[in-house]
Amino acid sequence: MTDLNALKYTAEHEWVALEGDIATVGITDYAADKLGDVVFVELPDAGSAVIAATVVGEIESTKSVGELYAPLTGEVVEANDAVVDDPALVNSDPFGAGWLIKLRVDAAAVAELLDRDGYVALTGGAE
């Protein structure tokens, strides 16, 4: 089980796990639940430059289409092809196998994101 308190979060319902200068990004269980059954995921290609708060991908579900925002400025070093092949991973394991992209970032920028308490407050107390 991922330690949710060790992650950082965005107001767009993304989580970020930082290891060195590599940030692994996914959507939260709250977002996955609100989306419903995810049926399609489009992710940026490795090597792509992304800018914080801009749309970098798309997540479609049986209920709606959601946009994936870059939580930080950086370079995509890996996209999770397993999620593209099996979008249901976003619902079944959002904090594990359902991760979306890995970015090379300025590690100091992560400090500006929400901590777990801030994210829980944002979602109205939903864990």
Which descriptors would you attach to this protein?
single chain; 127 residues; alpha+beta; OB fold (Dihydrolipoamide Acetyltransferase, E2P); six-stranded antiparallel beta sheet; 4 helices; 9 strands; 35% strand; globular
Structural commentary:
- With 127 residues, the protein is of the alpha+beta class.
- It has one domain: OB fold (Dihydrolipoamide Acetyltransferase, E2P), CATH 2.40.50.100.
- 18% of the residues lie in helices and 35% in strands.
- The chain has helices spanning 29-35, 81-85, 89-92, 116-122, and strands at 8-9, 14-19, 22-27, 38-42, 49-50, 55-61, 65-69, 74-79, 101-105.
- The strands form two sheets. The protein has a six-stranded antiparallel beta sheet with strand order 1-2-3-9-8-5. The chain has a three-stranded antiparallel beta sheet with strand order 4-6-7.
- The longest helix is centred in the N-terminal third of the chain and has 7 residues, at 29-35.
- The chain is globular and about 35 Å long.
- The two termini are 15 Å apart.
- The relative contact order is 0.25.
Low-confidence stretches: none
Helix content: 10-25%
What global shape is seen?
A: globular
User: Using DSSP, what is the number of strands?
Assistant: 9
What structural category do the secondary elements indicate? alpha+beta
**Topology order in helix (H) and strand (E) letters:** EEEHEEEEEHHEH
The name of the CATH topology is OB fold (Dihydrolipoamide Acetyltransferase, E2P)
The CATH architecture name reads Beta Barrel
Strand content of the residues, in percent?
Answer: 25-35%
How would you state the average pLDDT, rounded? 94
Determine the CATH superfamily. Answer: RNA polymerase II/Efflux pump adaptor protein, barrel-sandwich hybrid domain
Radius of gyration: 13 Å
Give the distance, in angstroms, between the N- and C-terminal Cα atoms: 15 Å
- Total helices: the number is 4
